[in-house]
């Protein structure tokens, strides 16, 4: 299964036994991979549905897949990861790819006080998330949200705990496996005192990632790793 | 201090109060950075000595630094990270850079049963380690070792515990903050059963990094993060 072509389908289409691939996926299947009737493939809708099937037909009019096996994968990740717009977009891309791989429920970008004007487009980032989900062979695609400010991000946190990675955190205030939290990583210049006050005013906690300041994309992965339990308590 | 130019000097020269920069560093200081007498800079020997000083003189004959402040930084990292030669050398480079940033005592490369012929040269990797140390502003440069096989790596482990990241590990055999260990990451195709037996025969332990198979470079950073304590017990 690991080597089978993998396609993303819209959640609304995942219940059928014969599924037509979305246009971009169909083009890739037909023109690039040159799949033919009978070839095995895997489909996912990004909402936990994992389907195995075979190509029913593939031509310039479209590609149809016949489903032979259906699995519902429960959600595995609880945490939301928020990263400020970084000066170097490729580092943000890297963080997104690795966060999907390690496991994250949603990804949030925000303009921090010290962020530069964002140079990454939402549609491009969404495509990167989808590509990362495919490469990591996941059934759940993290949601992607953009926020105009740290304040807006914090206001949208719902009932998630707020954890902010910052050097000012006490050396012994360290992250560990944690109930669902919104993990916040600042821009290269760090969070401003104003932003830290916004976080602590709503009960947010600053956590230390060690004695050395890490690059934003490294901090994102270290924090996500540290708060992610290695096994689910719910007895799977 | 974070923005000062940083140079690497040979450990043998770190005790003096006037230090001549090695040729490559001197060229960079003089021709690229155009440093002049009086400019502040930082020197490190990669063995814990951190020196602050000012340029004494900089010309085509060399660059001398006058030391004004000397700090001895205790070693901070205990773990050795071993990664098999990967098919894609840029992923190895990435792993090395991030491992230095997160903190590692030594880095080991080895030819696994399923490694392809290595396409990275030792001198190039050593230069990458040094660049990562500079960028992360560390006083300790991890040692770099190359091993002809996993067997040779294991034989050279000294008194380090052996932890091997592998999907076959029991789901509840997870890494946590650990005394000094040799962390082993296999190639893209994974360790062979033969190699796993080599490890377990000497008391090595397989650990799980979660329910999903991670890319080698991601596994390296996740394992290193999980076994690295966030604060030192020795009361610093």
Question: Could you walk me through the main structural features you see in this protein, from its secondary elements to its overall organization?
Answer:
The structure is a homodimer of 236-residue chains. Chain A has 236 residues and is α/β, with parallel strands linked by helices. Chain A has 2 domains: 6-72, Hypothetical PUA domain-like, domain 1 (Ribosomal Protein L25, Chain P); 80-226, Alpha/beta knot (3-Layer(aba) Sandwich), CATH 3.40.1280. Helix content of chain A is 28%, strand content 26%. The first copy, chain A, has 6 helices and 11 strands. Chain A has helices at residues 23-32, 89-102, 122-135, 150-155, 193-201, 216-227, and strands at 6-8, 18-20, 40-44, 49-59, 62-72, 80-84, 106-110, 143-147, 161-165, 181-185, 205-207. In chain A, the strands form 2 sheets. The first copy, chain A, has a 6-stranded parallel β-sheet with strand order 8-7-6-10-9-11, with helices on both faces. The first copy, chain A, has a 5-stranded mixed β-sheet with strand order 1-3-4-5-2, with helices on one face. In chain A, α2 (89-102) packs parallel to α3 (122-135) and α2 (89-102) packs parallel to α6 (216-227). Chain A is elongated and about 60 Å long. Chain A starts with 5 loop residues before the first strand and ends in a 9-residue tail after the last helix. Mean pLDDT of chain A is 90; it is low at 232-236. The A-B interface holds A 76, 98, 101-103, 136-138, 171-172, 174, 208-212, 214-215, 218, 221-222, 225-226, 228, 230-231 and B 76, 98, 101-103, 136-138, 171-172, 174, 208-212, 214-215, 218, 221-222, 225-226, 228, 230-231.
